[in-house]
């Protein structure tokens, strides 16, 4: 079974922890319904309940409302945060996402992308990644590899507002949203139940029941814990320092820059012609110190991270120089032509923050009448900007497979389509997670053999256009 293979691959990690949480299950689906309806605060029975109203959970609700075969389903979206009014401010948020072409296509099909474009986004047309220990680089250009931009940088709150705006105008009375929803617990059905139903108990005493429960409640998913599935996770003992940066000079600014330091990658993502967004992954103690620094010292540290010359090993320099000459002789790019990253003039006041970095993967995405999407199912290091894109991929495939199942006359919780969902998503998500994990491991060591191997490998990858296209193809699907 695919999920078992995943477990065997990942369990070798020395810091891996496997958490299994048990849950009290009701004996039959009818018991769930009778229990709910006997409760004085029973609020209703739904086809689908989505626990979690972040970008991924709201996208799923929007997708269900837009699909002609699913629009008649009675859907409840439970969001733990209060319903806040949104106003686009001149200042950029310090939390952004890099959206790939697959996500753009999904959002366009849901009529969400037009709202994003009406607010603001920044296309990424070039990407340059280089190694601080050898200065070997790889570059991606949209005109060479894709028919469209490499990615789009969008603020988290802009993206969420665009989804919610379209969801509110979808004119589907079957979609209901409860804000400030504090969930106390779940009661899930057993494997042998023919018509599984779940019960959701709220902290205020309200109770809801549903046929299909979707866990979109993040990396610490209570739905996943209630399922009792194994969850493989570890901390990187790192934090991602984020900030909004002002550039020294106005420029086109459509390039994403990432430099691999021995402590982790520092990435500068374009926002507009004058500003960029910072995502700097480093060890926890270093991150805390960076947050404490006065603004001018923080800017100096950041410019050092982008420009500082690290000690070079003469053996590595000799081999990479020879590789560059060999590539040039056979007519391939040798990686010497490059752009220079922008220098940072200052950081926007109060924009610095940090969040912990970790890995997580649920060995099962489904249970009887339950499915996981987004960070509830998988969590990755932000070095490749793939986290939220994997979640949106879950939304696309789950909606498509559920729609096919309904067209074929299957029940909403039929194990055939749910099994396909788990298989399709794990076949995409797990290789992506393993690739990101491998990159993190080989770039956070400065041992000479490792630096040599990764440097030569990066040179060759940069020279081979079909290989770069394959990498971009996987990253954008």
Automatic annotation (TrEMBL):
Signal peptide annotation: none
Substrates-to-products reaction catalysed: a 2-methoxy-6-(all-trans-polyprenyl)phenol + 2 reduced [2Fe-2S]-[ferredoxin] + O2 + 2 H(+) = a 2-methoxy-6-(all-trans-polyprenyl)benzene-1,4-diol + 2 oxidized [2Fe-2S]-[ferredoxin] + H2O; a 4-hydroxy-3-(all-trans-polyprenyl)benzoate + 2 reduced [2Fe-2S]-[ferredoxin] + O2 + 2 H(+) = a 3,4-dihydroxy-5-(all-trans-polyprenyl)benzoate + 2 oxidized [2Fe-2S]-[ferredoxin] + H2O
GO MF term list: 2-methoxy-6-polyprenolphenol 4-hydroxylase activity; 4-hydroxy-3-all-trans-polyprenylbenzoate oxygenase activity; FAD binding; oxidoreductase activity, acting on paired donors, with incorporation or reduction of molecular oxygen, reduced flavin or flavoprotein as one donor, and incorporation of one atom of oxygen
Cofactors that this protein relies on: FAD
SUPFAM superfamilies registered for this protein in UniProt: FAD/NAD(P)-binding domain
Pfam families tied to this protein: FAD_binding_3
Ranges of residues in domain FAD-binding: 45-322, 364-406
Domain of life from the UniProt record: Eukaryota
Membrane-related topology note: Peripheral membrane protein
Pathway where it operates: Cofactor biosynthesis; ubiquinone biosynthesis
Location in or out of the cell: Mitochondrion inner membrane
GO CC, one annotated term: extrinsic component of mitochondrial inner membrane
InterPro entries given in the database record: FAD-bd (IPR002938), FAD/NAD-bd_sf (IPR036188), Ubi_Hdrlase_CS (IPR018168), UbiH/COQ6 (IPR010971), UbiH/COQ6_monooxygenase (IPR051205), UbQ_mOase_COQ6 (IPR000689)
Chief localization: mitochondrion
Keywords noted in UniProt: FAD, Flavoprotein, Membrane, Mitochondrion, Mitochondrion inner membrane, Monooxygenase, Oxidoreductase, Transit peptide, Ubiquinone biosynthesis
Family, per entry: Belongs to the UbiH/COQ6 family.
Physiological role: FAD-dependent monooxygenase required for two non-consecutive steps during ubiquinone biosynthesis. Required for the C5-ring hydroxylation during ubiquinone biosynthesis by catalyzing the hydroxylation of 4-hydroxy-3-(all-trans-polyprenyl)benzoic acid to 3,4-dihydroxy-5-(all-trans-polyprenyl)benzoic acid. Also acts downstream of coq4, for the C1-hydroxylation during ubiquinone biosynthesis by catalyzing the hydroxylation of 2-methoxy-6-(all-trans-polyprenyl)phenol to 2-methoxy-6-(all-trans-polyprenyl)benzene-1,4-diol.
Quaternary structure note: Component of a multi-subunit COQ enzyme complex.
NCBIfam families in alphabetical order: COQ6, Ubi-OHases
Protein name in UniProt: Ubiquinone biosynthesis monooxygenase COQ6, mitochondrial
Organism: Helicoverpa armigera
